[in-house]
Amino acid sequence: MKNYSINSISFGQTFLKPSLRYLSAENKEKLVRSYALGEIYPNDIYLGATRKGDLTVDITRTFLYDHLIINGEIPLNPKTARDYVIAKALNDSWQAIHGRKYPVQKTVIKYLDYIPEDMLSYQIATEIEEYNRKYTKLFDN
Questions:
Q1: pTM for the model
Q2: Residue 47 to residue 10: CA distance in whole angstroms
């Protein structure tokens, strides 16, 4: 099995919090399959841990332009790069003035030692889908 460094991996919109140091090496290894979920869903996913070693999953909607760029839906060239910088700056300014546009759903997954790797990524994906279903009307506006 490959040796992954938990501190240097961040795929798409899946972000790893420093609190992951509270997870055992075996449980960190179980998370590797879940890193790609940020590329599949248009959500920002923050993976962390409690001091007791439980997994924390924070989910929010991403800036849609980020999702499209990361997944290759928008070609990278000087014009799209300029448009992206302008759109990102406007979005960041709006959030600075009005606060976060989308809510954050926080979930704690306990008993990681007893959850198989494939079931863990399935459980996280289920949380993401529940979040998207719950706030779908907010996303359409």
A1: 0.76
A2: 10
List of residues 6+ apart from 16 with CB closer than 8 A: 6, 7, 9, 10, 46, 47, 48
Tell whether the torsion through CA atoms of 47, 50, 56 and 58 is positive or negative.
negative
**How are strands ordered across the β-sheet holding 55-61?**
14-16, 43-49, 55-61, 105-109
Helices (H) and strands (E) in the chain, counts: 6, 4
Tens of pLDDT, residue by residue, the chain (141 residues):
344 444 444 334 788 999 999 999 999 999 988 888 887 888 889 999 999 999 999 998 887 777 777 777 888 888 888 888 888 888 888 888 888 778 899 999 999 999 999 899 999 999 999 998 998 887 765
Which residues are within 8 A (CB) of 140 and not within 5 positions of it... i.e. 6 or more apart?
A: none
